[in-house]
Design brief:
By secondary structure, this protein is mainly α. Helix content is 77%, strand content 2%.
């Protein structure tokens, strides 16, 4: 009984042979006479199935020891010249058709080269060739006659045609034929007359022709649709090229016609498109993926430009989506971060490095929300406060280095700390150097100010 999956069985057989190669080789040596026919049949089948792989392995083995193999061949030819010639002759007889086919292919590729070499050889050895032909004919007269008879029998029609052509060439010339332009003009006149007759016949028998067409269509609808579909698939490239050419030549007229047709059949066209998309969803997605892969950079550039032009729309859409489906959005965000953890971390690090002021303002706002403090401020408020304090610490007489970046970057301090019910608004903020801000921490502002030379009345 045949195996249900012959390819799987063949694969398992190969794997078994690869594992037990030495054991099988030893078994074949010991039982060569008993299983000679089966072994030969299996070897032949294996060679046919793995012909290309065996050739590749033999070529690699030969290339590894090329010089040694050539030397061994030369020695063998010198010791057994008669045997080598007999083997070569038998090989040629076995592969005569294959050699002829290879010669024909080589000749087809190098036809001009062979003809040029033949002309040069005949020109250089003209007398020698003629003498050799005369000697051969004199020595093989009967053989040559037999060959001539056989050649004539094989090529009788060709010889007769050639003789007829020579006779026609020796006859007086025929009257002049019309030129190409005259033939074109005559053909156009005939086509115009035929079209006029067809149009007149259609106008006289219009109702009969339409009724016959409808009847024939109802009777052969499936066959007609199948033929139309096959024709469209076969001529798709030609039709697309013709449409593009027509659009280039008659672009405005073509677009106007399409707009009129769309307005007239809008509902039917949209319904047909929706039905086609629903039926061929996978095909559409596959085409989109292919276009994106072929034009990856262009797609990215177009996407960036579109997003930049419609940034407010995207933000509004995302905000509304997050409000309507918060659970879905959180789940999507969680999965995305798990799948792209390194990219998200790197993006966060870049954001923190590129926007230190906004990040610090966000951190202060977060602490204020945790402390239930009122008011809020932005990074622009901090910059305005830094300019208002003239780039100096708020503590009088402070000589500590301070700047808006680097190691000596200023600290934003809440005058009344958040844990003492201070506000998070700009009116409750001041710029301090790092030393004084860390020293103040969450102390009472009045007590801390007295210790630094400030008097309150």
């Amino acid at each position: 009984m045949a195996h249900k999956d012959p390819e799987n069985a063949r694969q398992k057989r190969r794997e078994y042979h690869e594992v037990n190669r030495e054991k099988l080789r030893q078994y074949r040596k010991e039982h060569a006479d008993k299983h000679a026919t089966e072994i030969a049949k299996y070897q032949k089948q294996y060679r046919e199935e793995n012909r290309e792989e065996l050739r590749r392995k033999n070529k690699e083995r030969y290339d590894l020891n090329a010089e040694e193999n050539r030397a061994q061949k030369r020695q063998y030819r010198e010791r057994h010249p008669a045997k080598v010639k007999e083997q070569e002759r038998a090989c040629r007889l076995r592969h005569v058709e294959k050699r002829r086919e290879a010669c024909r292919e080589w000749y087809a590729e190098h036809k001009e080269q062979v003809r040029e070499q033949g002309k040069q050889y005949r020109k250089a050895n003209h007398e020698k060739i003629l003498q050799r032909n005369r000697d051969y004919r004199a020595a093989n007269c009967e053989k040559q006659r037999d060959y001539d008879r056989e050649y004539y029998a094989r090529n009788r029609d060709k010889i007769i045609k050639r003789k007829a052509a020579l006779d026609a060439a020796s006859r007086p010339p025929k009257p002049p034929q019309p030129t190409v332009e005259e033939k074109k003009r005559m053909a156009e006149e005939q086509n115009t007359a035929i079209k006029a007759r067809q149009k007149e016949h259609y106008q006289q028998n219009r109702e009969i022709i339409l009724a016959q067409g409808r009847k024939r269509y109802r009777k052969n609808r499936a066959k007609i649709l199948a033929r139309q579909k096959a024709y469209q698939q076969a001529t798709r490239a030609v039709d697309n090229a013709r449409r593009k050419r027509r659009r280039l030549v008659n672009g405005d007229e073509q677009r106007a016609m399409e707009r009129v047709r769309y307005r007239r059949k809008r509902d039917a066209i949209l319904a047909r498109k929706r039905a086609w998309r629903a039926t061929n969803r996978e095909h559409i997605n596959r085409q989109k993926r292919g276009r994106r892969a072929r034009n990856h950079e262009r797609y990215l550039q177009n996407t960036r430009e579109y997003n930049r032009r419609n940034l407010h729309r995207f933000r509004e859409h995302h905000r509304r989506y997050r409000q309507e489906k918060p659970e879905v959005f959180r789940e999507y965000t969680r999965k995305y971060r798990q799948a792209h953890r390194e990219a998200c971390n790197e993006r966060s690090r870049q954001y923190l490095r590129s926007r230190p002021d906004q990040v610090a303002a966000y951190a202060r706002a977060r602490r204020a929300r945790k402390a239930a403090a009122e008011g809020s401020h932005t990074a622009e408020d901090i910059k305005a406060l830094w300019e208002r304090q003239e780039h100096r610490c708020a503590v009088p007489g402070c000589r500590n280095p301070i700047s808006d970046r680097g190691r000596n970057k200023y600290h934003v301090d809440h005058i009344v700390p958040l844990n003492r019910r201070g506000s998070n608004g700009p009116e409750n903020l001041q710029i301090l150097c790092a030393r004084h801000n860390l020293e103040k921490h969450d102390a009472d502002p009045y007590e801390w100010a007295k210790t630094h030379g400030r008097l309150f009345i």
